[in-house]
Design a protein that fits this description.
alpha+beta; 33% helix; 11 helices; two-stranded parallel ribbon; globular; single chain
């Protein structure tokens, strides 16, 4: 027991040195209690056109199917709340997480370094690391690892960090000391996230109909956004932070300490004309390493047109 505890402590210390803001460790197991919720989500087609969410159903419930002999799931949080926000009350808005370098690249580099440290300094291991890139129910594993609770908007909430953070996982065949699952929740009677959603994407607390979510409409949906949602986008052209912005746990957010998460300087200075006349060359220059690039130039331009037209009305 002491041996596993010492190993866990060394791993946690290294994770913090690498710049992660929080870390917890959960015992790998099947999340049987999430089965019915996941099944219902898919049967009601709340995933919209995100067909990949229906794939690998069993793997989503049991990470041991992705790593032979998996015993531990190390979960890390990385804050992304920016130091400066987009200005202008009539301008297109992109989600805060997409201001700077694509988080997939940043977190995977850090997890790769953590994995190498474990192999070199702790014990030879086999494993895989992910961040929003595999069939892993990462928010639920974060709860299992003691890092917070699931809020009514379906996002993980942490008392110190709020919800403006990325989640990463390292699944290992190494036995470690495990943290106690987070058993409390601190949303209480607050429903601000639910009532603030312009498209009413929440069917009820904790249940998101992703097909109505602004993030889905502006990123995942490859077709033109249905007209019924145009006036409800609130100028969002890539992603949405509304349910996070109104959350009481996000009213005094910590600023990130990751330089590559800062946007290119001229992005925050964009005016309406600059957005409206965005060229493909400028798109590639400004967003080449950003998550925004995932949506593609054509999709972003269409979103910008819709947002600006709706704002004129």
């Amino acid at each position: 027991m002491a041996h596993r505890q010492k190993r866990a402590e060394k791993i946690k210390q290294k994770a913090l040195e690498l710049g992660f803001n929080a870390i917890g460790i959960a015992k790998a197991r099947r999340l049987e209690e999430q089965r019915e919720g996941l099944k219902s989500f898919l049967e009601k087609n709340y995933q919209g056109r995100m067909g990949y969410l229906a794939n690998h159903f069993e793997k989503r419930l049991d990470p041991r199917l992705m790593v032979d002999g998996a015993k531990s799931i190390i979960v890390v949080l990385l804050n992304y709340f920016p130091h400066h926000l987009q200005a202008g009350i009539k301008l297109p808005v992109i989600s805060k997480y997409a201001y700077g370098k694509d988080y997939h690249l940043v977190i995977k580099d850090k997890l790769k370094a953590l994995y190498a440290f474990i192999n070199d300094e702790i014990a030879p291991v086999s494993g895989r690391f992910f961040t929003d890139s595999a069939p892993v129910l990462e928010r639920y594993w974060a709860v299992e690892a003691g890092l917070g609770w699931i809020g009514k908007n379906g996002l993980l909430l942490n008392k110190e960090l709020g919800s403006y953070f990325f989640i990463g996982e390292l699944i290992l065949d190494l036995e470690l000391e495990y943290d106690q699952p987070y058993e409390k929740e601190y949303c209480g009677s607050c429903n601000q996230c639910l009532s603030a959603c312009p498209t009413q994407a929440f069917e009820k607390p904790y249940i998101l109909n992703a097909s109505k979510c602004i993030s889905y409409l502006t990123i995942e949906l490859k077709d033109t956004i249905p007209e019924q949602f145009h006036s409800k986008l609130m100028r969002r052209v890539y992603g949405c932070d509304i349910c996070q912005d109104v959350c009481p746990w996000n009213q005094q957010p910590q600023k990130h300490q990751i330089a590559v998460f800062d946007p290119q300087a001229d992005l925050l200075a964009f005016n309406s004309d600059r957005w409206q006349n965005l060229t493909k060359e400028e798109f590639n220059r400004i967003f080449k390493d950003s998550a925004v690039h995932r949506a593609g130039y054509k999709k972003l331009k269409e979103n910008i047109r819709i947002a600006l037209d709706a704002n004129k009305q």
